[in-house]
């Protein structure tokens, strides 16, 4: 609970509203598309930590969920959220098993992706997606896209859009991410 208070007061510097009871956020090695994962989003005069399905409903039958969404040249007036994580993976190779690369934020135990969330509509549950951008120098040797990892100082700016999207939705400078081949 203390760590969640730190999240709300020290990191984002906004009041944090928790669901009915404090969530049990056990460490997880992997979160797969369509699984439930935590997001931080605006709620009333503060932010709330919510458990939401990863992946927007597809726009056509039998299509996969939209787990990543290109950010370039777009404006996001509503539904902005932060997606906390300790790492992310990218894969290379053409045959199974592909090489698996783990990315962590240099000098930090956890970080947040820039995300979008949508409310539940009819039979479609509320869901989130993670924004992507052109790869930065740490990711480019491995993948042609990358998820948007926000600097802690930019978390509130993303939620409130107090700075232009192009300043926030960009790759981090060289050395911001540590890369390790795990398979």
Please give the structural blueprint.
Blueprint: H1 2-11, E1 16-17, E2 36-43, E3 46-54, E4 68-70, E5 80-85, E6 88-92, E7 99-105, E8 111-118, E9 127-133, E10 146-147, E11 149-150, H2 155-160, H3 165-168, E12 177-181
Parallel strand pairs: 1-3, 3-9, 4-9
Antiparallel strand pairs: 2-3, 2-5, 5-8, 6-7, 7-12, 8-9, 8-11, 9-10
Describe the structure.
With 183 residues, the protein is mainly β. It has a single domain (2-181), classed as hypothetical protein yedk fold, CATH 3.90.1680. It has three helices and twelve strands, in the order αβββββββββββααβ. Strands 2-3-9-8-5 form a five-stranded mixed beta barrel. A three-stranded antiparallel beta sheet has the order 6-7-12, with no helix packed on it.
Overall mean pLDDT stands at 88
User: What oligomeric state do these chains adopt?
Assistant: single chain
> Can you say what the CATH homologous superfamily is?
SOS response associated peptidase-like
**H and E order:** HEEEEEEEEEEEHHE
Low-confidence blocks of residues = 1-10
> In DSSP terms, counting alpha (H) and pi (I) runs of 4 or more, how many helices?
3
Q: What proportion of the residues is helical, as a percent range?
A: 10-25%
Side by side, the strands of the main sheet go 2-3-9-8-5
Second-tier CATH architecture? Alpha-Beta Complex
The biggest beta sheet reads: 5 strands, mixed, barrel
Q: What is the general shape?
A: globular
Percent strand: 25-35%
Distance between the termini: 34 Å
